[in-house]
Amino acid sequence: MNKKLTIIGSLILLVIVVIFIVYDTEPATEIEVENTEPETTEQPQYLSETREVESPITTKITLFADSYSQQIESLPPIRSLDQISKEEPGVWDSYKWLFDEQIQEYGNIAARFLLGEYVTDIKKFDVDLDGNDETILSICGTGGNHCPHRIIIIKENKIIFSVSPTVVLSINDSKNGDGFYIHWVPWGLEQEGTIWDVGLCCPPGYMKTRFIYKDGEFKPISEQEVLYSSVESTDLTPVFTDEAENSSTYPIKTVLSGKIHK
């Protein structure tokens, strides 16, 4: 009896061993897991900034005296659109969309200059120390480009100052009511061989001429050259400075008037 039990037990043990060996040698089933993470491509980081670099102030004035006028003139009369349309029907038909926009945005002041010119900007600030704002009007010739073509200052419906060099950018507030700054771009044959010897599309900067109000007129007293400086970097790894542990800058190169300064 004991011998039979021993044989049976051995057989059972043998079956268990065989089952274990067979199971252990079967190749494992691979489970495919779908990757739901979006594919990313590392892009180099880029830092770019344009700054303005001013030269020292000089009393040498390069803005030509014949490019501005202080002759007192009356403003052109206000006319209706019907009157304007009859002056030059061809121009009216071609630019009617512009003239409609002008009247909607600027009203009667625009109606004084259409058809031949149109308004591009209006500013108001004091220029003659009387405490009252004058109107600074930027004007462009109809169909022209590189606007504005001239800028006028209006006081009590009179033109008291006008400027129209080849490229005039703006007349800006002096912040103290005494005069203004004219921003303009030198251009023409006299600029050959200088940094200004470029197309009107992309000047390297501009000139800033300071006018003050003295003895009943506007007088130029100083000038600065302002150049555009392009600060660029493709390496945005911080470089810590000595001033403070958390203070950092980035390696940059500065492109100024076509030259690279590190």
Question: Please, could you describe this protein's structure?
Answer:
With 262 residues, the chain is α+β, with helices and mostly antiparallel strands. The chain has 4 helices and 15 strands. The strands form 3 sheets. Strands 1, 8, 9, 10, 11, 14 and 15 form a 7-stranded antiparallel sheet that branches. Strands 2, 3, 4, 5, 6 and 7 form a 6-stranded antiparallel sheet that branches. A two-stranded antiparallel ribbon has the order 12-13.
Task: Map the helices and strands.
Layout (H helix, E strand, L loop, with lengths): L1 H24 L21 E8 L13 E2 L3 E2 L6 H7 L1 H18 L1 H4 L5 E9 L8 E8 L8 E6 L2 E6 L3 E7 L6 E6 L19 E10 L2 E17 L5 E2 L7 E2 L3 E4 L2 E3 L1
Keywords, please?
single chain, 262 residues, alpha+beta, seven-stranded antiparallel sheet, six-stranded antiparallel sheet, 4 helices, disordered C terminus
List unreliable stretches of 5+ residues: 239-262
Q: Which percent band covers the strand fraction?
A: 35-45%
Average pLDDT rating: 79
SSE pattern: HEEEHHHEEEEEEEEEEEE
Radius of gyration: 38 Å
Q: How many helical elements?
A: 4
DSSP E strands, number: 15
The count of domains is 1
Major sheet: 7 strands, antiparallel
Secondary-structure-derived class: alpha+beta
Shape: extended
Roughly how much helix do the residues carry, as a percent range? 10-25%
Q: Terminal Cα separation, in Å?
A: 101 Å
Give a quick rundown of the structure.
With 262 residues, the protein is of the alpha+beta class. 20% of the residues lie in helices and 35% in strands.
